[in-house]
Write a sequence for this structure.
């Protein structure tokens, strides 16, 4: 599915929410944010959009705790969103260029030569292009306020980066890695004697000097057969426990004993073993800088939003809007 189709699918899910529930809401003011208001219908629309978005992303037991957590801060998130847009207006922030560049990137990714073609694609999927454009503009405005007020002022020097590297070596240590080939003998439909005979035949061919890859291609009964036994590379912790236990003892070129798994037996050859190593500072410098920036940016964002709320007039008239819209 193209990027545009994925995006439109998400918009369609959100756009159809009100129709799904089909419940009328008696209009009322939930909160006043400076000179703007949040109504019950505003809250209902955001609540149902959040529900459908999370339902599409989360499965089974993961959904409920995530939804509860988001639901608890929904009203606060809506208030913050309004405050940031108000602040963007005060700061006279213009995101027209960023918005146009974003739209141009969507056109390029999907092979559209004009905005008219993009609009037609939106219309074909039942999505209001102007509404999507406005929502995208608002998101860019909110992001710009946070960057201008918080992100732009964050300065990280090399000393901080190196200190983090030195104090957290476990984050930058690559675990051992094993590149292996294998031969699988299935237990399905075989008695113990027949399976043993098959395994003995394979080992005999290897003892006679036949190439492991050739034997795997001719005898393996697993998916690696088509790749001449090649099973790829695995970091420590990614393999079955018995596989890893045997491979840790070995040098490249050695072959394990037969290892029993639930569905049969595996014979493994260690092709290459890369020992654990601490990555060089220059290899992870940018990663560390980004990590420090994100942590500091999030802390600064929270502090800034609290200050913004303290300086604003915020009056919550309906603390629990869910009771008024019939939502759990």
């Amino acid at each position: 599915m193209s990027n545009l189709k994925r995006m439109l699918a998400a918009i369609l899910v959100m756009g159809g929410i009100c129709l799904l529930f089909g419940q009328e809401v008696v209009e009322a003011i939930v909160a006043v944010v400076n000179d703007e208001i949040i109504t019950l219908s505003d809250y209902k629309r955001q609540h149902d959009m959040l529900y459908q978005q999370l339902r599409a992303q989360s499965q089974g037991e993961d959904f409920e705790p995530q939804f509860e957590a988001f639901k608890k801060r929904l009203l606060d998130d809506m208030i913050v969103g309004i405050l940031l847009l108000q602040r963007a207006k005060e700061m006279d922030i213009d995101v027209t260029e960023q918005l146009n560049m974003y739209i141009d990137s969507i056109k390029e990714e999907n092979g559209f030569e004009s905005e008219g073609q993009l609009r037609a694609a939106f219309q074909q999927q039942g999505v209001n292009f102007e509404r999507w454009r406005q929502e995208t503009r608002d998101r860019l405005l909110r992001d710009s306020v946070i960057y201008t007020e918080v992100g732009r002022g964050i300065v990280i020097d090399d000393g901080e980066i190196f200190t983090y590297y030195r104090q957290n070596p476990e984050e930058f240590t690559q675990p051992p890695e094993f590149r292996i080939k294998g031969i699988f003998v299935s237990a399905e439909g075989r008695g113990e004697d027949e399976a043993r005979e098959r395994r003995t035949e394979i080992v005999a061919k290897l003892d006679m000097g036949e190439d492991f890859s050739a034997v795997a291609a001719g005898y393996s009964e697993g998916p690696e057969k088509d790749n001449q036994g090649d099973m790829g590379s695995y970091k420590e912790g990614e393999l079955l426990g018995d596989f890893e236990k045997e491979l840790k003892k070995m040098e490249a070129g050695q072959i394990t004993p037969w290892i029993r798994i639930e569905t049969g037996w595996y014979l493994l050859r260690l092709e290459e073993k890369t020992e654990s190593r601490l990555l060089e500072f220059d290899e992870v410098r940018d990663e560390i800088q980004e990590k420090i920036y994100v942590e500091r940016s999030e802390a600064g964002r929270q502090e800034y939003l609290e200050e913004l709320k303290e300086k604003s007039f915020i009056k919550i008239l309906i603390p629990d809007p869910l009771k008024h819209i019939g939502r759990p």
About this structure: The chain has two domains: 3-155+289-325, 176-275. Confidence is low (pLDDT under 50) at residues 8-25. The first strand starts at residue 29 and ends at 33.
